[in-house]
């Protein structure tokens, strides 16, 4: 019973620590939001004291600042997407090369050999149904048979 209680106590302490850390993080977030709200209220009060022309100018400056920040964020996102595009293009080139190499290796196999392979595949399927595991094959076809069994 002792080890079980110690385990439960340790788990409870871990949960309490996590809870306290989460509460502290939320308090910090609330404090930051209060500060931001105070700044906005001060800016709003200052704006009210300005002439109508100055209010319009201040509003335009705020909008320009917001749009500039938004543009910077979009630029950063664009750069990330461009890097990802380059990476994907490189991978595509590698895969295209592998496919071409594979096709070239298949083209090197004589057509009659490929026909024999197709006939053998059909025969293997038929024999599996009829004999369930009994198989007759030529010794030179063993690598092909193994490859077909794996795929």
From TrEMBL:
Regions annotated as coiled coil: 5-98
Entry keyword Coiled coil: yes
Alphabetic keyword roster: Coiled coil
Name of the molecule in the record: MYO5B protein
Organism: Baryphthengus martii
Gene: Myo5b_2
